[in-house]
Amino acid sequence: MSLDTLPRRAPGVALDRGQVHAIAACYFVASFAALGLPPYLSEILPGLGDRDGHWAGLLYIAPTVFTALGAPLWGRLADRFGQKRLLLRAQLGLTVSFLLAGAADSLPAFTCALVLQGFLGGTFSATNGYLAAALDGTHLSKALTLMQGSARAALVAAPILVGALSPWIDPHRQYLVMAVLPLTAAVLLGFLPEPARRAAAATATATATASRAGVRAERSGDPPGSLKLLYTFEFAFVFATVISFPYLITLVHERLPGAGAAVAGILFALPHLVYLVAAGRVHAAVQARPRTGLALGFALVALGLAGHAPAHSLPAFVLTRAALGLGMTLGLVCLAVLAAEAARGRAPGRMFGTRETVSKCGAVAAGLAAALVNSSGGPAAPVVTGTVAALAAALLALLTRRSTR
């Protein structure tokens, strides 16, 4: 996604577009190990004493759980001591945890390293808080959309690179190599400015902002209590999309017996590739009507997930994954626009820390639900569950949109 409309240095804009792109690059490299190595836990754990990899599922979500627990604390500290300091802390926290994970020689030590990765990390909420303290309105929503693009790019590229390096470097020891990435990101971020709009200023304007909330709500279609609605939509969106992840490869191999690992991997990555291609255009289309776009996004997610159930051919899987990708793009972009609106007059660290917690809770709930329904209904059951959740969220988005009118 492009940030060409963000000026080099304009009044009221504390970061130019080159600096925003640098932040996105730092988030990308920091996400590489966090997203690329967990799929290989089943190969790492036998070397640590877990011969059959029974703990892989639990350890897969361990960083997510502890990110959810730690994000609100780090967000409040960021509002108090500065967004840049806490963003640097998150990058250095990842560096330390990756080094400990790569050096671990037992399952308990490796588990502790993953727990620390979750609790000391939280780079996404820290990055968003930093951006929200420096940017506003459309500038902020575009930057948040770009950060999601960084996450999607890392999600696509990281597992491929880790697999390519595996013949030469064991995935377990790749944690030691990957620790260089967040450390490099921390060094680069050290050259960026502290955001000009500090949490104290946000607190000082909160009262005045509250008095104008009704006017802004009428103008933007964002009703009172929109922050709770934002968190509700965030949870529902993450739940509906993530629930299809754990057993997708199994479903593809079951429906397409001749398909190799490469085909399954491409189908897994296809929705994220759609985001990378379409996010910029989608942002331009929905920035004035994010609730409508969010309802449409949930509907397309439901359509894409429902399409997995009858899909028994490669073209059918491509179409249904593309529909899911378009819905995912609409949802993520509209949530970024709504988050940028909600951030006005609020301390950004606390808000984005709470949003991160809600998002991670949605991911954990999706993983647990996927395991539960898969055990009783097979690999197609999670996508059916996700379809129901997405349809319910689409209906909620429509109802709240109409109520604002």
From TrEMBL:
Membrane-spanning intervals of the chain: 20-41, 53-74, 175-192, 229-249, 261-280, 292-311, 317-340, 352-373, 379-399
Entry keyword set: Membrane, Transmembrane, Transmembrane helix
A Pfam family matched in the record: MFS_1
Membrane-protein topology: Multi-pass membrane protein
UniProt subcellular location: Cell membrane
One Gene Ontology molecular-function label: transmembrane transporter activity
Primary localization: membrane
InterPro entries for this protein: MFS, MFS_dom, MFS_trans_sf
Native source organism of the sequence: Streptomyces sp. Y1
Superkingdom to which the source organism belongs: Bacteria
GO CC term (a single one): plasma membrane
PROSITE patterns tied to this protein: MFS (PS50850)
Residue stretches making up the Major facilitator superfamily (MFS) profile domain: 19-404
PANTHER family: MEMBRANE PROTEIN, TRANSPORT PROTEIN
Record's protein name: MFS transporter
